Amino acid sequence: xxxxxALDFDRRxxxxxYTSPTHPLPVYQVVSAEGVRLRLADGRELxxxxxxxxxxxxxxxxxxxxxxxxxxxxxxAHVMFGGLTHPPAIELARRLVALTPGPxxxxxxxxxxxxxxxxxxxxxxxxxxxxxxxxxxxxxxxRHGYHGDTFAAMAVSDPVTGMHHRFAxxxxxxxxxxxxxxxxxAEWCDTDMVSxxxxxxxxxxxxxxxxxxxxxxxAGGMRFYAxxxxxxxxxxxxxxxxxxxxxxxxxxxGRTGRLFACEHAGISPDIMCLGKAITxxxxxxxxxxxxxxxxxxxxxxxxxxxxxxxxxxNPLACAVANASIDLLLQDDWQANIxxxxxxxxxxxxxxxxxxxxxxxxxxxxIGVVELTQEVELAAIQAQFVDRGVWIRPFGRLVYTMPPYxxxxxxxxxxTQQMMAVVMGLAxxx
Length: 429
Description:
By secondary structure, this protein is α/β, with parallel strands linked by helices. Helix content is 36%, strand content 17%. It has helices at 3-13, 51-54, 63-75, 87-99, 113-129, 151-155, 194-203, 227-240, 292-298, 315-330, 333-348, 377-386, 408-426, and strands at 30-34, 37-40, 45-48, 104-110, 138-142, 175-177, 207-212, 216-217, 223-224, 243-247, 271-274, 286-291, 357-363, 366-371, 389-390, 397-400. The strands form 4 sheets. A 7-stranded mixed beta sheet has the order 4-12-11-10-7-5-6, with helices on both faces. Strands 1-2-3-15 form a 4-stranded mixed beta sheet.
């Protein structure tokens, strides 16, 4: 099949994420990937600024991760986790318990970030049901959040920018407080807590858990908020006896400059969701961690937790996750993230003065240019490809979350192309 025929077949038969089946967006055929570069079928190379939706933190075709998969494939590609276990899962659980905040001691492996959120919500509801408090079955969160595309995850994502209107009447109804306006790099304003405090005071008897993306709200707007907000939420949860779920799927494993974003606030959640970077982008995989207390209550009187994915704790995924964590921790990863942050700040700061730019913000290995108007995705995507970079904007956001192995020169090139495209938008190009 020629490249033209392959893309034509793709257009007619393959449904890509967030696209219309009748008006599909253009796609670009990748034939190989190495380091921070994607090679297209037409021979062009693109510098990857997205880490394949934030997960390929070590880049592509990494020899250490390749070897971990090869060795594990020779031993065992998969085995059911019901009634069986295996060394890669045991080792990965040991590492996650050691790396995450102290009280998190129980690890539930699952398939993807959305499923990790589903598992967390089930845990919270079962926790209260086991204590004959079934009225505590709703969640409290903040606007502008995103927690995944499955039903329970959609229901706690932003009710305006999320998918609620498409599934009206089918999603569970939860409580949404106003998102904090105090930024991570600015002075804290205590009025940011008013909406949250009021909902907590009025509705805490119905609330099973609070769910938040710590410090960075990802696909709901790439918003960075003050750690003090998270600290005060933890205090309120303690006061009212409500569980706190930290959705670290996008922020975990160093992306914000801390291993987990909760560390910016110095707090520990009752339940934590991990995903995306956990396998270095090699396989879909996730984990939900909780405390001994939560697990003990759920298991009271012989109670079992009602979830069991077919590919739970897949040995290949566990093996490559162990290798990915080793890669991250064996070097001074914090200094490396600081290097990337400095490069993104240098490269994107000039965008602040451009017409049509509402804000520029950087945290760790995340760089965001927020525009005043939404972009036309197909057109702006083509401009980036023509400039030799892979950037996938959405809404009003042109942003990058590059692999951690990106060099200073590559950061400079990446940000130059971002600025050039944004400048072109300002000129109506």
